[in-house]
Design goal:
The chain has 685 residues and is an alpha/beta fold. It is 38% helix and 11% strand.
Length: 685
């Protein structure tokens, strides 16, 4: 007792001189090696569970020595929720697990992609295609079997952040064996002592920040890492005063615009911006939200590579380096661990939502709209979604005193439907809604997809490449077949993967479109923004793939579903130069200008063939969506979710439906009827 590990192992005399001690150690070590080699190999025996248990306390002995037993005990008691398991979040999980955190909840719906290998700890050749949450949960258990590790396989957003943070909705204890079922542990949920937000979408990031600030849950957010080519400096500042980081800047703007966060902060401006005299005179007011980030003005190579926007997607937009993402993740883990050990987190006086001051106003009340005046459930929508769909969801709603009647849409925030129409949309029967464009077949659970299709008035399964054509067609089959239209085609994002086999898949496409009822061509198109992650950008190939498929739709007189991003000039030229056009053309999640829309709808002979779809996940990000919807002819307006996840689709459809009703001055019922009739007309034979 009290001996060092080395002395105890070698039984070295306490009174030996330093030189004699060193010699004795080396001699003993050599003799030990000789004796071991001379001893016959014993018969293998099963591992001793007690011996393994005895080894467990040594895992974090170095951490205990560094911080002391009392501070380490604080880490063992802590529960940390990590949202986003990518290039930053995965390394933070690694550091937190190796620091002895007692409970970790890992939230992400994404799978490991081959393009993740350059920056994410979970990405290996053996894990490509596997759930990031599952892979990291298994790794954490291997690091520390005593850690209570749980997973939430979902994207955390405005509509579900409260349910996940407060009730652990969807939390499961990942099965140790891949063949076993995960264990539902949401009933035994403990509110996290700290939340780490490592996602790269400013809208969702803002919702997480707003809720945690309102609920007084300690939070650390990370800035963008895309486009940073070297590790110069990693900072930890209050989110209100970060500098030279686009993701942090956009999140801050969203919080001030949509969540009533105070503007009286004295943060430096972004490069090129000038600080006004009024801003210089303001007193600093911190938000209490720690942000770990690297400045984006320190790149070594000023012109090489792709420019990042903070995010790093699988489509290759924004390059990345592991020493940048890893360093940010480690720094975030360090800030969290130190705060936990210094007890800068929850206390009895700070537990629960803020009731006074600006923090009490950044997240709405928990009142819900009832269908019959007493119940807070809506047929076809989960309870938690109903609660957030009505007057509780700040990511989508505005002040509850506003009403749709008599409201000038241009005077409101473009991304926020009125609560009156949202309440009406929540009550609407699902059978009134037609989703004109979705990718639910990619989710994998055909039973869930069929059930949703059967509830709705209709939905079009829109494919992206030959590999998922059969999955979409399979939705129409099975024990309970559903009659939904299907769009078959090659998306511009994946055109580079189908370049060498164009003739083969074009033949297959022709056969399928002519033989399958209610089958159209799509999703096809042009995209100058997306860059292939594993190949050079090949826009000429996109043009060729689009031209072939568009010509086929024209020849067969089949409707076509079109994707267009930053390519309106080429798209319009092809439309005008074509000798003929398909009978109906659907510009999905239309993000072009009102002028481009007018040019299409006023084309001689063909103007009445163009339809325009709008989705909440894409179009409500843009302030110009109001004017575009207002310009869209009533009989050519379509409603879509544009989602792979069927569990979120109905919620997003109702949000967009309420917004359309606002802009057009319709009732929600009329908006549903008109968009449904338009969809039936578009997909009709």
């Amino acid at each position: 007792r009290g001996m060092s590990c080395t002395r105890a192992l070698l039984h070295t005399p306490q009174r030996a001189t330093p030189r004699a001690l060193d010699v004795h150690r080396r001699i003993s070590f050599v003799r030990t090696r000789v004796r071991v080699r001379a001893t016959p190999t014993p018969t293998p025996t099963p591992p001793d569970a007690d011996a393994c248990a005895l080894a467990s306390p040594w895992r974090f002995e170095g951490t205990k020595r560094l911080y002391g037993a009392e501070r380490f005990a604080a880490l063992e008691r802590a529960h940390v929720l990590v949202i986003g398991l990518g290039g930053v979040g995965s390394w933070a999980v690694e550091a937190l697990a190796r620091s002895g955190i007692g409970a970790l909840t890992l939230a992400d719906l994404d799978d490991v992609c081959e393009t993740n290998v350059n920056r994410q700890v979970a990405a290996l050749t053996s894990t490509v295609g596997m759930s990031k949450a599952h892979v990291l949960a298994k790794r954490v258990r291997d690091i520390n079997p005593d850690c209570d590790v749980r997973i939430v396989e979902d994207f955390v957003q405005g509509w579900n952040v409260e349910a996940i943070v407060e009730r652990g909705e969807g939390a499961r204890r990942a099965a140790a064996d891949d063949a076993d079922e995960d264990e539902d542990v949401s009933g035994a949920w403990r509110r996290p002592d700290y939340v780490l937000d490592a996602i790269d979408k400013e809208r969702d990031k803002a919702a997480i920040v707003a809720y945690c600030v309102h609920a007084r849950v300690p939070l650390c957010v990370t800035g963008g890492a895309g486009g940073l080519d070297s590790l110069q400096d990693v900072r930890a500042d209050d989110l209100s005063s970060t500098t030279f980081n686009r993701l942090a800047s956009m999140t801050r703007k969203t919080l001030r615009k949509d969540y009533n966060f105070p503007k009286d902060t004295e943060g430096p401006t972004f490069p090129g911006g000038k600080k006004s005299a009024a801003k210089k005179a303001r007193k600093s007011s911190k938000w209490g939200v720690k942000c770990v980030y690297a400045p984006e003005n320190q790149n070594v190579f000023k012109t090489a590579g792709t420019k990042g926007r903070g995010g790093i997607g699988c489509d290759g937009v924004g390059g990345s380096a592991v020493f940048v993402t890893g360093a940010i993740g480690f720094k975030a883990a360090s800030e969290i661990a130190l705060d936990l050990m210094q007890e800068k987190t929850s206390s009895s006086s700070n537990y629960g939502p803020a009731t006074t001051g600006w923090r009490s106003r950044v997240w709405p009340s928990t009142a819900t709209v009832a269908v019959d005046g007493s119940s807070n459930t809506v047929e076809g929508i989960p309870h938690d979604i109903v609660s957030s769909t009505n007057v509780t969801e700040t990511d989508e709603l505005i002040d509850s005193n506003e009403t749709a009647k008599g409201l000038e849409p241009s005077k409101r925030d473009a991304s926020q439907p009125t609560s009156a129409n949202l309440a009406a949309a929540a009550k609407l029967d699902a059978e009134e809604i037609f989703d004109a464009h979705c990718h639910w077949h990619l989710d994998g659970d055909q039973k869930v997809v069929r059930e949703l299709c059967a509830r709705l008035a209709g939905a079009c399964m829109t494919t992206t490449r030959p590999g998922d054509w059969n999955d979409a067609l399979a939705i129409r089959e099975g024990d309970q077949p559903v009659n939904v239209p299907v769009a078959l085609g090659v998306h511009p994002w994946w055109a580079h993967l189908e370049k060498e086999s164009k003739d083969a898949w074009m033949t297959r496409l022709r056969d399928a479109v002519t033989s399958v009822p209610s089958c159209v061509v799509g999703e096809i198109g042009l995209d100058k923004v997306a860059v292939p992650p594993d190949a050079d950008a090949d826009y000429e190939n996109q043009l060729d793939c689009f031209a072939r498929q568009f010509a086929l739709a024209t020849e067969l007189k089949k409707p076509v579903v079109v994707h267009c991003v930053k390519a309106t000039g080429d798209m319009q030229r092809m439309f005008r130069e074509a000798p003929d056009l398909p009978p109906r053309i659907y510009m999905h999640s239309f993000g072009g200008s009102s002028e481009f829309l007018r040019q299409l709808t006023t084309m001689k002979k063909y103007g009445d063939r163009f339809y325009f779809g709008f989705s909440s996940v894409i179009n409500l990000r843009s302030p110009k969506t109001q004017d575009i919807i207002r310009t869209t002819p009533d009989d050519r307006l379509l409603l879509e979710s544009d989602l792979c996840d069927p569990m979120r689709a109905e919620y997003e459809l109702r949000i967009m439906l309420a917004f359309i009703a606002d802009v057009k001055g319709w009732s929600v019922n009329d908006a549903a009827r008109i968009t449904r009739e338009n969809a039936n007309r578009f997909y009709g034979e």
